[in-house]
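Weekly sync, protein design subgroup
Attendees: M.S., D.O., the rotation student, P.L. (late)

Item 1: inverse folding check
M.S. brought a backbone from last month's batch and wanted to see whether the design step gives back something sensible before we order anything. D.O. pointed out we never logged the input encoding, so this time it goes straight into the notes. Structure tokens as presented (193 positions):
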């Protein structure tokens, strides 16, 4: 809590010790925090929860996505293309936990973008054509750090809007009430880790 003003809390969820921490916004921010958590605090598993703008036309507001892959339009300096993916064990656990809860989820690739606002949103048509489910801002850096440091990571995301359809977006009130499925799924998974 003393580093860069990013809050973190540790408590118990149904008898299991769980830590919850903010990661800021965007690839650089989550990249710093997850690297430090993995490297300096012996964290083995990070489950990121957050919102995502849906690209797939079949998605609805409030749908939960398990981010299998974290594509990016960021320049991470690799000199090539690296497609970071989540940890399969965490993905399997999330899918099984969701099934036990009767919570339908979508599993697939998401796009982590450095840009929150775009002058040309039609650029997403190319990503949509490749089967990308939605756009968020963090999973690729989380998955890259996990790969590099031999740790485990997974993104669990809730669809908050449908990109290209301004009529399909959560209100501020809905953002406070429609994220519960994602949050309890992550906490229920943590009990098993």
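Designed sequence read out in the meeting:
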């Amino acid at each position: 809590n003393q580093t860069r003003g990013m809050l973190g809390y540790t408590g118990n969820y149904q008898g299991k010790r769980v830590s919850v921490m903010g990661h800021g916004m965007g690839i650089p921010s989550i990249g710093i925090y997850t690297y430090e958590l993995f490297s300096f605090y012996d964290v083995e598993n990070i489950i990121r929860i957050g919102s995502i703008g849906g690209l797939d036309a079949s998605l609805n507001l409030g749908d939960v996505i398990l981010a299998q892959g974290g594509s990016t339009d960021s320049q991470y300096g690799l000199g090539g293309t690296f497609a970071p993916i989540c940890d399969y064990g965490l993905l399997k656990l999330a899918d099984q936990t969701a099934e036990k809860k009767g919570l339908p989820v979508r599993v697939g690739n998401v796009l982590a973008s450095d840009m929150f606002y775009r002058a040309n949103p039609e650029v997403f048509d190319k990503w949509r054509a490749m089967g990308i489910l939605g756009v968020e801002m963090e999973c690729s850096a989380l998955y890259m750090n996990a790969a590099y440091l031999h740790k485990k990571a997974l993104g669990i995301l809730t669809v908050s809007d449908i990109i290209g359809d301004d009529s399909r977006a959560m209100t501020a009130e809905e953002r406070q009430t429609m994220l519960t499925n994602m949050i309890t799924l992550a906490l229920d998974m943590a009990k098993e880790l």
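Discussion: The chain is about 30% helix and 30% strand. The mean pLDDT is 92.
Action: P.L. to compare against the previous round before Friday.
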